[in-house]
Amino acid sequence: MQPTAKALLALTCMTLSSVSLGAQTLTIATVNNSDMIRMQKLSKTFETEHPDIKLNWVVLEENVLRQRLTTDIATQGGQFDVLTIGMYEAALWGGKGWLEPMKDLPASYALDDVFPSVREGLSVKGSLYALPFYAESSITYYRTDLFKDAGLTMPERPTWEQIAGFAEKLTNKDKEQYGICLRGKAGWGENMALVTTVANAYGARWFDEQWKPEFSGPEWKNALNFYVNTMKKSGPPGASSNGFNENLALFNSGKCAIWVDASVAGSFVTDKTQSKVADHVGFTFAPHQVTDKGSAWLYSWALAIPTSSKAKDAAKEFSAWATSKEYGELVAKTDGIANVPPGTRASTYSDAYMSAAPFAKVTLESLKAADPSKPTLKPVPYIGIQLVTIPEFQGIGTQVGKSFSAALIGQTTVDQALTAAQQTTEREMKRAGYPK
Question: What stretch of H or E contains 401?
Answer without folding.
Answer: helix 393-408
